[in-house]
Hints:
Elements: H1 8-16, H2 20-52, H3 57-79, H4 81-103, H5 109-119, H6 121-147
Helix pairs in contact: 2-3, 2-6, 3-4, 4-5, 4-6
Amino acid sequence: MRHLECTEECVTATRSGYSGDSKAKRLRSTARSLSLVWAFWWIFFASANAVGERFSQQAVLIFAFFLLIFLGSAIIPQLWEPTGGIILLLEGLILLVGFPLLTYNQLPFSTIILVMLTLALPPLVAGLLFLAADWQKSRTSEVSQESS
């Protein structure tokens, strides 16, 4: 019979029924959901814009651009979570800084804030959650390797 040692953290996690691996799974599923909802909302917005402009050449090009960017932003984190987390963080930071600079004199301040909250904040949060899930997963695997 093999004897397993359990650290204090392991005992606490076992008693509470909440292990580090389940934390990582929760973080991962929250990040996936947030990134998918965010991407598909903006794809819907771009397609509605194209329909509203009666599929003009400019509207179709804008839609194609949004489709590529947001679809890639939704798919890459599903396949490669740490890389996707970094990409989402970078996108969120670029949007957080770039959108106000591009629209400073064109839109009211309240509109800029609202768009930044819906355009830049979700990828920032999702990216951080993907990276936190990866960190939690690696931390859990290190603890399990040390105990064996």
